[in-house]
Design brief:
It is a single chain. This protein is an alpha+beta fold and 567 residues long. Helix content is 43%, strand content 11%. It has two domains: 22-176 and 391-461, D-Maltodextrin-Binding Protein, domain 2, CATH 3.40.190.10; 185-389 and 474-567, Periplasmic binding protein-like II (D-Maltodextrin-Binding Protein, domain 2, 3-Layer(aba) Sandwich). A hairpin with a 2-residue loop joins strand 6 and strand 7.
Length: 567
């Protein structure tokens, strides 16, 4: 005799380790044990939100879904804690895989090319927004939430509360990805060394201005020179930290807005238009038209070459000798070891690991000896340009995922970004996505122990940090070109100009193939004819002609003045 459906589901769930029924008991246990008062919602509203998830999940009870993200502290918390809670509360069993960032992009690319449903949802960087918008292989979430996914869209989602939706919105005004975590690359420095009276006096005597947070690259360079070789607490210290091994992670070091920090590209928020921080120009229809200066791009323009030249000079002169052979993951922990005075390009995702008890960069009372501040900018930079990168790992639903599986995965995506859990998740990973979380009293209380992170995210300055924008037509194909070419400059095999000439030419070859193939329709590249570069240098905006003097008057500000200006 055939088992009744409910009985069959119950038995199946018992076998797979999922509760035989999902109700408020599991939700209340989770709220008691994990959330407490670390939420922007009252307990009654938390329970109401959990009840909505329970009800919305009923058609999918017993389903196994798989999602994937890169391995950072925030996603580890989701995978180890929130996935289990979601399973117990809803009866949908979710496996949240953690793999390398490059592997996430590879899996996504494979699913796009094959149509095979490898994962039911991806947390992939919003750097792929130009890819998703053009290929139309990711579900347009605006239409999804209003149509097919309406019955599984949380009425309390509150998109206006997310601080990063401008990063995940296409030129068509549609939302393609939902932010899950965000972190910026900022300037990091030893506040205790910068405020030491002897260091301050010695610096002023040598350079003629005050030691402080550098506003521009000339000041950063002076500070790097000042500290390199100086003995502090019996140790020889260095004025700069970076990495230089020819490795895929070297590409992120530059596509993550290094060129715009120098002043390449045009003004605009969240990205420069018509020329972005990759040096790619688009026309009035958002079609990429060139990367090299001869087509109106800026990837090999003077500002871009200046950015690579400074990178190599500083790495060679002011960083520990081992840095040139390091990859991103190896270089990241070095400042916490206590021998680095400052780092221009420092990701706030390292904050959680940088505030651990007992580190040389921590005080006995739990406050850091270091601070973070806005990144200094290069000589080509102008007000109105972005001045740094912000990572926004975001939920993406592919068109190739069956509707029922996409719905179940969308429920999980909303659960881990919900107002119920976001404050606790943000305390764990320190990667803010909601304005309400940033303003939560618990972060006011914790701010003195986080080195400026809370102050930055509460400041008006944060809008100048943004991910890769929509000018980039195929992030997976183009991003891999960067580490190979800039690696040649880092190793000395090519000059910075030769490396950037090669990079822009290779980017244009990819765009030419996309144009010929027509796979992106009328949204794809439509390259300009090549012209004498001087034509573009004489035109307004990017690319800018080479300056006769690429050093400027150094400027610094005290950290305390900077924070006061934000308030």
């Amino acid at each position: 005799m055939r088992l009744r459906t409910s009985t069959a589901i119950a038995l199946a769930l018992m076998v797979t380790g999922v509760p035989a029924w999902a109700d408020m008991d599991a939700a209340k246990a989770f709220l008691d044990a994990e959330i407490g008062d670390l939420s922007t919602l009252s307990r009654a509203d938390q329970e109401a939100e959990m009840q909505w998830f329970i009800d919305a999940a009923k058609p999918f009870v017993g389903m196994d879904i798989k999602v994937v993200s890169e391995t950072i502290t925030t996603h580890e918390y989701e995978s180890k804690v929130l996935a289990d809670a979601f399973t117990k509360i809803t009866g949908i069993k979710v496996t949240h895989d953690l793999i390398g960032e490059g592997d996430v992009v590879e899996k996504l690319q494979t699913q796009m090319q094959s149509g095979e449903n490898i994962y039911d949802a991806y947390i992939n960087d919003s750097d792929l927004i130009g890819t998703h918008w053009r290929y139309k292989q990711a579900r347009n979430l605006t239409d999804w939430m209003a149509g097919e996914g309406a019955d599984v869209t949380n009425p309390g989602l509150d998109l206006a509360d997310f601080i990063g939706t401008s990063f995940t919105t296409g030129p068509d005004g549609k939302l393609y990805q939902l932010p899950d975590q965000q972190f910026a690359n900022l300037y990091w420095f030893r506040h205790d060394w910068f405020t030491d009276p002897v260091n301050m006096a010695d610096f002023k005597a040598k350079y003629g201005y005050d030691l402080g947070v550098p506003i521009n690259w000339t000041a950063y360079q002076d500070i790097a020179e000042f500290f390199t070789g100086r003995e502090i607490d019996g140790k020889k210290v260095y004025g700069h930290m970076d990495y230089g091994k020819k490795d895929p992670s070297l590409g992120w070091r530059f596509t993550d807005a290094w060129l715009s920090m120098a002043g390449a590209g045009d003004k605009g928020e969240p990205n420069g238009l018509p020329v972005d921080e990759w040096g790619i120009r688009v026309n009035e229809n958002s079609q990429p038209v060139g990367s090299c200066v001869a087509r109106g791009g800026d990837t090999n323009g003077p500002a871009a070459v200046y950015s690579i030249t400074k990178y190599i000079d500083w790495l060679t002169k002011y960083a520990p000798p081992a840095a040139s052979g390091m990859v991103f993951g190896e270089a990241g922990p070095v400042p916490a070891q206590g021998e680095i005075a400052q780092q221009m390009f420092w990701y706030t995702a390292f904050t959680a690991d940088m505030v651990k008890e007992g580190l040389p960069v921590m005080n006995a009372d739990g406050t850091p000896k270091w601070r973070m501040a806005p990144s200094p900018h290069g000589v080509y930079w102008e007000p109105g340009m972005k001045v740094g990168y912000q990572d926004a790992g975001s939920w993406t639903l592919m068109q190739s995922t069956p509707v029922d599986r996409a719905k179940a995965a969308w429920l999980y995506a909303q659960f881990v970004t919900s107002k119920t859990v976001d404050v606790k998740k943000s305390h764990t990973g320190l990667t803010f996505i909601r304005e309400s979380t940033i303003q939560h009293p618990s972060f006011t209380e914790r701010a003195p122990k986080l080195g400026g992170l809370v102050e930055f995210y509460r400041s008006p300055a944060r809008v100048q940090w943004s991910p890769t924008g929509t000018n980039v037509p195929d992030y997976p194909k183009l991003a891999q070109l960067w580490w190979q070419n800039i690696g040649d400059a880092s190793s000395g095999a090519k000059t910075p100009q030769e490396a950037m000439d090669s990079l822009c030419a290779e980017q244009e070859k990819v765009m030419e193939r996309l144009e010929r193939a027509g796979v992106q329709g009328d949204l794809g590249p439509k390259l300009n004819e090549e012209q004498d570069p001087q034509v573009w240098f004489d035109a307004p905006g990017a690319p800018k002609p080479k300056l006769a003097n690429e050093e400027e008057e150094p400027k610094t500000v005290s950290y305390e003045e900077l924070i006061a200006s934000w308030k």
